[in-house]
Amino acid sequence: MDIDATADRVASLLLHGGGGLRDETSSGLEFEASLALAPLSRGAAPRDCWAVDGGQALVADARSLQVYATRAATVRWRDGRSVLEDEGRLQVHLLGCGEERAALAALDSPVDPRAAVDVNLLRDWGEWKAVAAAVDAADPGAVVLVDGDLQPDWRIPAWWLAALVARAADRRVLLAGVTKHSSLSRGGAPLLGALEQEATVELGARATWWTKVARTRPEVGAGLQVLVARLDPDAPFAFRVDLPADADPEASLGALSALCDDAAFPGYPYPLSVADRLAACATWVRADVWDRMAERFDRLGVPLDVRERAFADRHRMMERA
User: Fold this and answer.
1) What is the pLDDT of residue 314?
2) What is the 3-state secondary structure (H, E, C) of 102-119?
3) Residue 260: C-alpha distances to residues 229, 231, 239 (Å)
4) Secondary structure letter of residue 218 according to DSSP
5) What is the pLDDT at residue 70?
6) Phi and psi for 182 in degrees, rounded to 5?
7) pLDDT greater than 60 at residue 319
8) What's the Cα-to-Cα distance from 41 to each of 213, 250, 255, rounded to whole Å?
9) How far is CA 120 from CA 38, 51, 67, 264, 294, in A?
10) Half-sphere CA count of 81, side-chain side, radius 13 A
11) Over the stretch 46-105, which tens digit does the pLDDT of each residue have?
């Protein structure tokens, strides 16, 4: 389609989208027959809250080989203040030409060693390993927040997540996933924006609200429920929130709402915003990793021109010409 035809189709979906619910990234969900918006009351903030987020960066790319850096940050928010802000150990991985097998083996994961490996899997496993550590260290009654949904990379076995959810329940720890940019749709149109508009009409511009959207199919493994909620009156957006199937959605969201009243990030759990900042692999992180590798190359006698020929971005150089 040309530009006008594409714009016309997008406009039609945004203005008139209707029909079935979908999630383009997951086929393991059973959706509600209809969505009912319900008011949400703010509850008491959990005394102990953990938040985990992961980050990644491409350090160098020779097309046949890539060097990536990943890390998982952990934040602990206790009695209304931060007591832990750990950016996580930087993990550096070599991918391509079979090298990813060694990258996976080094991470001590439950992933089938024959599975395809990419940086998404490596980053995701690092993040979920940090989530498991937070569950084990949390106080009874705590909340452990995960950036994104509660469905790990498809290559991480379903039994591993089911065991983690069960362990959290045994320790009276609530797992909750909060997704900043959801792929949920209705009739092809983004679902969250449509619900925000409907809630403004039905409940008012400053109402906080929630609705249940879906649950995981029994064969998927861990039982989960998928919700959408606006968690603060000043929040510009609602978010997808994933909870274990047996969690009380209204009480859980009410407690989560109490963590979402920061003036800079209304409607989003503040501990997660801190974890997001810590996990981000900024430009200086990539440069630092490469500088340290360059020092190692010097000691090993790798000539500078050999490195440049392998890793130079020739496409970008030609664009500048």
Assistant:
1) 53
2) HHHHCCCCCCCCCCCCCH
3) 12, 6, 11
4) G
5) 95
6) -90, 145
7) no
8) 19, 8, 9
9) 36, 20, 13, 29, 25
10) 1
11) 999 999 999 999 998 888 889 999 999 999 999 989 999 999 999 999 999 888 888 888
Of 139, 123, 128, 41, whose CA–CA distance to 84 is shortest? 139
Give alpha helix (H) positions in the chain.
Answer: 3-16, 100-105, 119-137, 158-170, 191-203, 249-257, 270-279, 283-300, 304-311, 314-320
**Integer Cα distance of 198 and 270 in angstroms:** 26
Separation in Å, CA 321 to CA 20, 51, 307: 49, 45, 22
> Taking the model in full, what pTM does it have?
0.89
Write down all domains in the chain, each with its CATH number in brackets.
Answer: 26-257+277-281 (3.30.2170), 294-320 (no CATH)
Which amino acid appears at position 104 of this protein?
L
d(CA 112, CA 82): 37
- Phi and psi at residue 68, in whole multiples of 5°? -120, 150
Yes or no: say if 59 and 290 are a contact pair by the CB < 8 Å rule: yes
pLDDT, one tens digit per residue, over 176-214 is 999 988 888 888 788 899 899 999 999 999 999 999 999
The whole-angstrom separation of Cα 315 and Cα 220 is 43
- DSSP H helical ranges for 204-282: 249-257, 270-279
